[in-house]
Design brief:
Blueprint: E1 15-21, H1 27-30, E2 32-38, H2 39-51, E3 55-60, E4 70-71, E5 120-129, E6 139-145, E7 160-164, E8 178-181, E9 195-201, E10 204-207, E11 210-213, H3 215-222, E12 228-235, E13 248-254, H4 258-269, H5 271-277, E14 285-291, H6 300-309, E15 314-320, H7 334-340, H8 342-349, E16 354-360, H9 364-378, H10 383-392, E17 396-400
Parallel strand pairs: 2-4, 13-14, 13-16, 14-15, 16-17
Antiparallel strand pairs: 1-2, 1-3, 5-6, 5-12, 6-9, 7-8, 7-12, 10-11
Helix pairs in contact: 4-5, 7-9
């Protein structure tokens, strides 16, 4: 299967000029602009203008006189065919419709508003366990108040923030920051737009017969409401959601890798979010969640509720390794669920509006790759060739640690 990246024919080297108003930022948006693009980028530019509320005045294969020419902005490729040309040598701004692609917009995404040398000082609002009785380990949901910053620390779904724990390392130097995926939407859990939440598992491992606990994860799990915490960021553009309300989204998560998935699902299905953000998801979302025990399923009640309220739009598939068995009688892992549903997963991936997101421990990647390789081979496809195509098309998103 070839992944569509929306490139036009490379045989046409003409330049086209688009005259547009109401497109861009600041003064650009208020002024009439002339943008010159090669033929291969024209349809993408037209769609970008339409998505961002601009109005096209002229599209011509000839230079438009009287005024400077703007170079084309960076726009993700979005369509598989070029625009339709009229007999007069101009290009129709209403060409034959082509399938929409679930593009990801990197515009206006905040990055590094606060850096390690000058972090934002947030206040802990809440800190509680996400685990049910009988669970393994320690996982907390922690919320920070971001009010009062200059600039305001804001973020979008799929980003991360840095935490600098108090204290010093063995050498007497301040601890380095650790990055954590944000678990709340841009509006925060309270919908006020001035909080951020994290989903944190306390790191625990054995070394030389002793139990070692992670510095930053322990710091976060132990903090109390009212405590002050150094926060940096936000960072990251790898895990952004597509803007297309009809996109399809496959999510593969283990443990606290559920954090970005929670933000997506709240944005898609939480009534207060839908009312506030004006983004009404109409596509299909499918979450594969891996956990060792049922008691370790994070935000499980919320996801079950979304599935009951939006059965035509959301599916929730669990892989509980210590309680379920795969087809070979072994433990059920997320890659086993991928194999079980391989044919349907690939029918989704063949749709250019589908995005795949994976988040969790880095050790999950080989298992997912193996499952995808087998699933692709069953359809006569080569996963080693397909995956880079999906990545290049900004439809395969991975954040592992």
């Amino acid at each position: 299967m070839r992944v569509s990246r929306g490139k036009g024919s490379g045989s046409d080297d003409r330049l086209f000029t688009v005259v547009v108003e109401g497109f861009g930022v600041g003064q650009q948006r208020r002024a009439e602009r002339r943008i010159t693009v090669p033929f291969q980028q024209l349809q993408t530019l037209i769609q970008s203008i339409a998505r961002n509320g601009g109005r096209i005045l002229v599209v011509s294969a000839d230079a438009v006189p009287d005024g400077p020419i703007s170079q084309a902005p960076a726009i993700p490729s979005a369509v598989a065919e070029g625009p339709a040309e009229t007999a007069a040598g101009q290009v129709s701004t209403n060409p034959t419709p082509t399938p929409k692609t679930a593009t990801v917009s990197h515009a206006a995404v905040p990055v590094n508003l606060y850096k390690p040398k000058d972090p934002f000082i947030g206040t802990v609002v809440d800190n509680y366990s996400l685990l049910a009785e009988g669970a393994i380990g320690r996982v907390n949901h922690i919320t920070f108040d971001l009010a009062g910053g200059n600039p305001q620390l804001h973020y979008v779904e799929g980003q991360s923030i840095g935490i600098i724990p108090d204290g010093a390392d063995a050498a007497g130097k301040p601890h380095k920051l650790r990055l954590y995926s944000i678990a709340s939407t841009r509006h925060g859990d309270n919908m006020a737009g001035s909080t951020v939440s994290l989903c944190v598992r306390q790191l625990e491992y054995e070394k030389d017969g002793q139990t070692i606990y992670g510095v930053c994860s322990s710091f976060l799990c132990d903090i109390k409401p009212g405590d002050k915490v150094k926060i940096t960021g936000p960072v990251g553009k790898e895990m952004l959601l597509p803007e297309d309300e009809e996109a399809n989204v496959i999510m593969l998560a283990t443990g606290t890798g559920i954090a970005p998935m929670r933000t997506y699902l709240r944005r898609m299905f939480e009534p207060s979010e839908r009312d506030k953000n004006g983004w009404h998801f109409r596509g299909k979302a499918w979450l594969f969640m891996g956990a060792p025990k049922t008691a370790n399923l994070l935000y499980d009640d919320d996801f079950n509720h979304y599935q009951s309220q939006y059965p035509d739009n959301f599916r929730y598939t669990k892989a509980i390794s210590r309680e379920q068995q795969n087809s070979k009688g072994g433990r059920m892992y997320i890659q086993d669920r991928v194999l079980e549903h391989a044919e349907e997963i690939f029918s989704w991936i063949e749709n250019p509006q589908t995005h795949v997101y994976m988040c969790g421990l880095r050790g999950m990647e080989p298992g997912i790759d193996e499952a995808m390789t087998a699933a692709a081979a069953a359809k006569g496809l080569d996963w080693s060739e397909l995956r880079p195509q999906l990545k290049k098309a900004e439809r395969w998103h991975v954040e592992t640690y």
